[in-house]
Amino acid sequence: MAAQAPAFWQRRGLLAQALRPLSLLFGFLARRRRALTQPQRLPVPVIVVGNVAVGGSGKTPVVDWLAGVLRVAGHHPGIVSRGHGGTASAQGGLALVPADGDPGRYGDEPVLLARLTACPLVVGQDRPAAARALLRLHPECDVLIADDGMQHYHLARDLEIAVVDAATLGNRLLLPAGPLREPLARLAEVDLVLAHGELDAELRAAIGGVPVFPMRLFGEEVVALADPACRLPLAALRGRRVHAVAGIGRPQRFFDQLAAAGLEVVAHAFPDHHRFVAADLVFGDASPILMTAKDAVKCRAFAPADCWEYPVRAQIGSGAAERILEKLEDGRTSA
């Protein structure tokens, strides 16, 4: 259900109401699991980046941004990830992800992050085990980033960053009646919130006094899959008809970005983490194909000639980086 968000998650209709008893059970089990979990602390600080809902909120660009912030401040960050969609972490496996790794083995997001950040990255369903493996392989790492780790309570964390996009929160109900993995009240427990778009009154009340910083995803050029040295300004495609391909948690955001740039978008939405094959990119005409960076890592080997990646970066409001580094330093001082 998380791979293709059901339409009923957007409203509190009859089906959502019928599933609310299961949501109550889900919430009870989640609270009990958290209460019974004994977090495992590591010898280096851990920063968790996550959210309270399934689907795309922009976590991957935020992890990339955070790794850059830490590097500039003199740290040596490493990253741990579940490796969703890859075979390497299945059945308890652990694996160090190369920047040119196979997304089918390691997962699309870990391969993308390894390429973007150049940080050591280990995938594994057992986050503490993945973190310890990373530190054994790369003892120079002095801080770890847990990608999509808010609900993985076995790994103790020193700082939590919640990425919030109101559009992904739907009817604000817990699974399976809605898209929430935890109640909105969970946001009041994190150290800072990065808000993609406007926050309504309900969200602001749930966040409480936690500092909120605006974020947006932006990109100004496209990159040829066949030759990464070949780049074009996105504006060069203004007025052109393009096939937009997205197998991400919230494909409409990608389509809207291209439309806002003046492109004539023919949208092709696929499930999140979709395993693309060559036939998925055959559309019967010669229009250029644009796709997200997350999809490009899976399609590069068989993409048509006129196929382009649209990479985006997270632009975070002023003061967020300073607060993260300050909290990190405070934690070191009190340790």
UniProtKB/TrEMBL annotation:
The reactions it catalyses are:
a lipid A disaccharide + ATP = a lipid IVA + ADP + H(+)
Q: Which Pfam families does this entry report, sorted A to Z?
A: LpxK
Alphabetically sorted, this entry's keywords are: ATP-binding, Kinase, Lipid A biosynthesis, Lipid biosynthesis, Lipid metabolism, Nucleotide-binding, Transferase
Entry-linked InterPro entries: LpxK, P-loop_NTPase
**Described function:** Transfers the gamma-phosphate of ATP to the 4'-position of a tetraacyldisaccharide 1-phosphate intermediate (termed DS-1-P) to form tetraacyldisaccharide 1,4'-bis-phosphate (lipid IVA).
The UniProt gene name for this protein comes to: lpxK
Instruction: Name the lineage.
Output: Bacteria, Pseudomonadati, Pseudomonadota, Betaproteobacteria, Rhodocyclales
Q: Say which family it is in.
A: Belongs to the LpxK family.
GO biological process entries: lipid A biosynthetic process; lipopolysaccharide core region biosynthetic process
Name recorded for this polypeptide: Tetraacyldisaccharide 4'-kinase
Pathway listed for it? Glycolipid biosynthesis; lipid IV(A) biosynthesis; lipid IV(A) from (3R)-3-hydroxytetradecanoyl-[acyl-carrier-protein] and UDP-N-acetyl-alpha-D-glucosamine: step 6/6
This protein's GO cellular component annotations are:
plasma membrane
The answer to whether UniProt assigns keyword Lipid metabolism to this entry is yes
A GO molecular function assigned to this protein is: lipid-A 4'-kinase activity
Q: Which residues bind ATP?
A: 53-60
Tell me which EC number(s) this protein carries: 2.7.1.130
The organism is Thauera aminoaromatica
